[in-house]
Every structure is written in structure tokens, then in C-alpha cells.
Amino acid sequence: MRTTTTRKRPATGLVALVAAALTATALTHPAHAAGDTAGAPAAHRATQRAIDAAVAAGVPGVTAEARDADGVWKSASGVADLTTGAPRGVKDRFRVGSITNTFVAVVLLQMEAERKLSLDDTVERHLPGLVTGNGNDGRRITVRQLLNHTSGLPDYLADPRYGETYVLGDGYLQHRYDTLTPGTRLRVAFSHPPLSEPGARHAFSHTNDILAALIVEKAGGRPYESEVRDRIVEPLRLGATSHPGTSAGLPRPSGRDYGKLFLAQPERILDVTEVNGSQGWGDGDIISSARDLNRFYGALLRGKLLPPRQLEKMKSTVANPDAPGSSYGLGIERLTLGCGTTLWYHDGGTLGSLSMVAMTADGRHRLAFNYNGSWGGETLLPILDAEFCEAPARSH
């Protein structure tokens, strides 16, 4: 068994915002590992060590599930509640952050197959007059460019005032229960000039994802949540997957979420579990579980959700200049690990939660996991290395 190296991929969205702004504290919590449900324990021994290492490095807790030719393996390590010491569970539900993008992209590609829209449609065609101001122009941006993040549109989360109000410090504590509309967040974005010309380069922006969800609503004539439910959640029987609406809590079973809100107090960890779901509408609001994410992505890669033509379009990627070895498709990403294994994946973060789901090209070997803390991003890729590079040889 050899140790592999992986080029570090900068985390997206709130993952980047929080990880870059806040320094991790090396807290250590006792590990609690669930037994294997199927397959040989040795097949995931390296993965368990990597998960336990993340907890030893300060992540409160981790829940994970892997699926491969040998069956299903589930594990939980660390704690769900820093106050009570209750362990994390293998059935925990959590906010998936930007993994929401993949759900939205699938719906839009299904709609394209039904000829309700085209990826080459302009944003202006579906959302007339919405993308305007400071050089932002919906007439020059396509649906495809929203999905692969080459629109050049600024990210509302990068606005310092928005961050101070809704993401960090006392602002978050005072406004966590506020209901926000998509328009509120878009106005923040369009108060800034574009990052680049449309189509010039990939640059992840949550603004794109809000607009994509709004186009789902315009093309479908009903809430985007209804489209996701009827097209994905119910057909795949994703019983742990839901949209929160304006509710603030997490459905059970779930752990508590923890964040570091104060730059000047990096060791201060606060419970940030409760937050109005509307603050992530369309770009990070979905709640799910490791099991459901594995089921969803497995069905997607095996062609159960999209016709071959649309799946091929989804997997057509553009280079990510900030992450050598990684490229971005339509709501899904491709990454080549140091051992040569190529994965399709997506990560996601909200304040208090980091998640990742990854799989081999044929969708047969999958791993999904979640941290109930919004730090420790540097430990995500070692878990992928352990699962897909260090395990004993098996079918991918």
C-alpha cells in the first residue's frame, strides 16, 4: 500500500470563504467508527484512517458511505454534538451546499431533452431584464455558461458587506433567521462589475446557480423545488433529501453544525446549525445524506437520469485555472488523483458543513461524506486518496 499525492483543489463558495478566512483549531475528539455493513473491512481501512485523522485534526465529526463491487460500507467518526459528546451517525442528514448545483443541472438538461429550453439560450430569454448593471448583461450569457461557471458574473458571497451581514461574526448571529429572496442576493452581485467576459474562463460564482434555479422555474412554470422532487428525489426514492424552504433547522437524524465566525478569535467555535433555508435557495439549500448522494450520483453516471446526449454535454468540461488536475462540466467536476484514478465529483460547503461526493467514471465505486464543521478543507482530498488509491485492488 503506497501513499499517493493529490494536487490541492481550492474549495468552492462558502467552503473557500470560511476556510480562507478562519484558522482551524486543533481540537481532538474521540473517534467512533461504525462497523462495515458489507464487504471486507480491509477495503476501506485506509479510508477509515483518513476520516479519523480529519477528526484528530479538529473536525468535530464525519459521516461517510462508500459503495463498490463488494457492497456498502458506512462509517461515522467523531461527535455530532460538542456539548453532549453524542457520536455522529451513519444516517445523519446534512446541508450539501453547492452539491445542489448538480441537482439543478440535471433538471435543466432534462428540460433541454424535452425541448423546453436550449443550453445556448441567453439568460435574457428566460429572465428578461434581470441580469443588468455595472457591465453585467444577460443578453451575452448563456445557460451553458451559468452551469459551467464561465459567465463571468460576480459572486454575491464575495461582497464584503454581505459576508459581514450574513456569514461572519455578529452579523450572522443577528441575521441567521432572516428570509432572503433570490433578488436580494442577485442585487448584491450585480452591484459589482463582471469578473471576466462571458466564456473567457471558469470562475465559480454562486450567482450562476441562483440564476440557473430561476430558469428552472421559468421553463417549468413552478417552483424549482417541485421540479427537483418530481424528477429526481421521488423517482430515486431519496428519502433523506429535502428542501428546507424558510425553516431553520435540520431534520433528524442529524448532528449539530459548527462554525468559526470571528476572525480575531479563531479558537471560538459556535453552534451554527440553525439558519433560514432561504439564504441558500437555489445554490446551496438542499439537505441530504451520504446514502442519498451516492444513490443520486450513481444513477446519474449510469445514465438513469439523462439521455446519452445530455449526459455527454454534462461531462464536457472546461479547465479550472485555480486547480490543476480538475475541470468543471455542467454541475459536475472531474479530478485526476495522484495515483492516476479519474473521478467525477462535487464538493459543497455551508457555514457549519462541508460535504463531498465522488465516483469513478462508470459510477460503480462511490464515496460520499460530510463534516459537521466548516473548516478542515485540507483533509478532504486525503480521504479521496485513501478510498480510491490506497485500498486493495478491486473493480472500479
Number of helices: 13
Could you give the count of β-strands?
A: 14
What separation lies between the terminal Cα atoms? 17 Å
Structural class: alpha+beta
Account of the 3D structure:
This protein is an alpha+beta fold and about 400 residues long. The protein has a single domain (about 15-390), classed as DD-peptidase/beta-lactamase superfamily (Beta-lactamase, 3-Layer(aba) Sandwich), CATH 3.40.710.10. The protein is about 30% helix and about 15% strand. The chain has helices spanning about 15-20, 45-55, 100-115, 125, 145, 160-165, 170-175, 180-190, 205-220, 225-235, 290-300, 310-315, 380-390, and strands at about 60-70, 70-80, 95, 130-135, 135, 260, 270, 285-290, 320, 325-330, 335, 340-350, 355-360, 365-370. The strands form 4 sheets. The chain has an 8-stranded antiparallel beta sheet with strand order 2-1-14-13-12-11-10-9, with helices on both faces. A hairpin with a 5-residue loop joins strand 11 and strand 12 (about 340-350). Helix 3 (about 100-115) runs parallel beside helix 9 and helix 3 (about 100-115) crosses helix 12 (about 310-315). The longest helix is centred in the middle third of the chain and has 15 residues, at about 205-220. The protein is globular, with a radius of gyration of 20 Å.
Question: Would you summarize the structure shown here?
Answer:
By secondary structure, the chain is an alpha+beta fold. The protein has helices spanning 13-21, 45-56, 100-113, 123-126, 143-147, 160-166, 169-175, 182-189, 206-220, 224-233, 290-301, 308-314, 380-390; strands at residues 61-68, 71-78, 93-95, 132-133, 136-137, 258-259, 270-271, 287-289, 318-319, 326-328, 333-336, 342-350, 353-360, 366-371. α6 (160-166) crosses α7.
